[in-house]
Amino acid sequence: MIQRVMLVRHINRPEAQAAAQAAARELSVRDIDVVPEGDCTGDIDLVLATGGDGTILAAAEYARKFDAPLLGINMGHMGFLAEVSADGILSVVDMIADGRYTMDTRMTLDIHAHFPDGTEWHDWALNEAVVMHTDVAHPVHLGFGVDGQAVSTYGADGIIFSTPTGSTAYSFSAGGPVVWPDTEAIIMAPLAAHGLFTRPLVVSPSSVLSVNILEDAWSAPEVWCDGLRQRTVPSGTTITATRGCRPVHLLRLDDTPFSTRLVKRFQLPVDGWRKRPSER
């Protein structure tokens, strides 16, 4: 039973703040405690985010920390991570209070950077981790490998390591495949790469993907996790991506299949599908 809800909202969108306030009122009426963002005292049963996918990714940090499910109310444009739009807040609160929901478990990525001076940096991602150049006039030189086997070297704008959840985000825009979110896999998609083998790859969730920052005369690239957390990585650094040790749980309020969500979000043309030639 959900008794304590943490609210996370987009601070620069008045409509997101209004939606959060409306949700707080409705939750309180149903004797569900509302906890403001960042209040880490006590247990949290649900993290409720109002905003776009960026806000939901920020809220995922709290959901992962408390091992609580995450529910997004979409105030943005694409909203692949969101479950409902703002006009459905009343029904959302009713379903939360009545326990009419299910949970999806989404795999994450653990990201480790091993620096040439022997120090390390650790982070994680629900959508993707991106190694990206910082000098727009020059590529970064990378060596890519899987499970200890070197696969390719190339100059590129960067490289993306993505989960299936993130396959419809940055990885997709880089030419990566859409992977159904209940599939467990790791996707690698190069960014504007020059080399003999620069295709996206989908590998087992048990694989270890690695990228070496090769000697480069230009500026050091950066690693970004979910577009929220950043670290500069100098030449000689090795970054590895593995299946995350802790998943994130998304609250689901209906059984709409992912294929339906995909068509709706991307507004895919489906007229004529399954029609006989005489009906087209």
UniProtKB/TrEMBL annotation:
<feature type="binding site">
    <location>
        <position position="157"/>
    </location>
    <ligand>
        <name>NAD(+)</name>
    </ligand>
</feature>
<keyword id="KW-0963">Cytoplasm</keyword>
<dbReference type="InterPro" id="IPR017437">
    <property type="entry name" value="ATP-NAD_kinase_PpnK-typ_C"/>
</dbReference>
<feature type="binding site">
    <location>
        <begin position="168"/>
        <end position="173"/>
    </location>
    <ligand>
        <name>NAD(+)</name>
    </ligand>
</feature>
<feature type="binding site">
    <location>
        <position position="192"/>
    </location>
    <ligand>
        <name>NAD(+)</name>
    </ligand>
</feature>
<comment type="function">
    <text>Involved in the regulation of the intracellular balance of NAD and NADP, and is a key enzyme in the biosynthesis of NADP. Catalyzes specifically the phosphorylation on 2'-hydroxyl of the adenosine moiety of NAD to yield NADP.</text>
</comment>
<keyword id="KW-0067">ATP-binding</keyword>
<comment type="similarity">
    <text>Belongs to the NAD kinase family.</text>
</comment>
<dbReference type="InterPro" id="IPR016064">
    <property type="entry name" value="NAD/diacylglycerol_kinase_sf"/>
</dbReference>
<dbReference type="Pfam" id="PF01513">
    <property type="entry name" value="NAD_kinase"/>
</dbReference>
<keyword id="KW-0808">Transferase</keyword>
<feature type="binding site">
    <location>
        <begin position="127"/>
        <end position="128"/>
    </location>
    <ligand>
        <name>NAD(+)</name>
    </ligand>
</feature>
<dbReference type="Pfam" id="PF20143">
    <property type="entry name" value="NAD_kinase_C"/>
</dbReference>
<keyword id="KW-0521">NADP</keyword>
<feature type="binding site">
    <location>
        <position position="138"/>
    </location>
    <ligand>
        <name>NAD(+)</name>
    </ligand>
</feature>
<keyword id="KW-0547">Nucleotide-binding</keyword>
<feature type="binding site">
    <location>
        <begin position="53"/>
        <end position="54"/>
    </location>
    <ligand>
        <name>NAD(+)</name>
    </ligand>
</feature>
<keyword id="KW-0520">NAD</keyword>
<dbReference type="InterPro" id="IPR017438">
    <property type="entry name" value="ATP-NAD_kinase_N"/>
</dbReference>
<protein>
    <recommendedName>
        <fullName>NAD kinase</fullName>
        <ecNumber>2.7.1.23</ecNumber>
    </recommendedName>
</protein>
<keyword id="KW-0418">Kinase</keyword>
<feature type="active site" description="Proton acceptor">
    <location>
        <position position="53"/>
    </location>
</feature>
<dbReference type="GO" id="GO:0016301">
    <property type="term" value="F:kinase activity"/>
</dbReference>
<dbReference type="InterPro" id="IPR002504">
    <property type="entry name" value="NADK"/>
</dbReference>
